[in-house]
Design a protein that fits this description.
By secondary structure, this protein is an alpha+beta fold. It has a single domain, classed as Nuclear Transport Factor 2, Chain: A (Roll). It has four helices and six strands, in the order H-H-E-E-H-E-E-E-E-H. The termini are far apart.
């Protein structure tokens, strides 16, 4: 189901929306159902793309740190085999994340994911999350802006 005008684009958007819903329920079985075995995730700051197995581990760590994480899709733009999704998520920092012990802090994380869909499965993602904003909320980074 490569995205084409009409049903293909709708099916691709539905697939991406379902990915968020199922992972927010911590239904990690969706990786084997919805993701192509050759899936790759491109994440800023990580020089080598993550393969499917590494991606599974990454999301298990994310949801262990923020077990109540819930995404809200703000908008989607689709064409052919691509779905761009802008989202905001809220959750509570209840476990270690990136070496930061649980703080109990309620966080808001925003991001944009660009998905490629091949034969009805997620085959690639390019993501950009507001990690600086997350680290500020966890009190690990202080940003000092000076406006002249």
């Amino acid at each position: 189901m490569i995205g084409t005008p009409g049903n293909g684009v709708v099916a691709n958007e539905t697939l991406v929306r379902r990915r968020f819903v199922e992972l927010d329920k911590q239904n990690f079985a969706v990786f084997d159902e919805m993701f192509d075995p050759s899936y790759v995730l491109h994440f800023p700051g990580i020089p080598t793309p993550m393969n499917l197995e590494t991606t599974k581990r990454f999301y298990r760590l994310l949801y262990a740190a923020f077990p109540d994480l819930q995404h809200n899709i703000i908008e989607q733009i689709s064409a052919r085999d691509k779905v761009v999704t802008r989202w905001a998520a809220q959750g509570t920092h209840r476990g270690a994340w990136m070496g930061i012990p649980a703080t109990g802090t309620r966080i808001i994380l925003t991001g944009i994911n660009i998905y490629t869909i091949t034969s009805g499965k997620l085959s690639e993602s390019n993501v950009n999350w507001d990690m600086l904003g997350l680290m500020q909320q966890l009190n690990t980074v202080t940003l000092r802006l000076q406006v002249p």
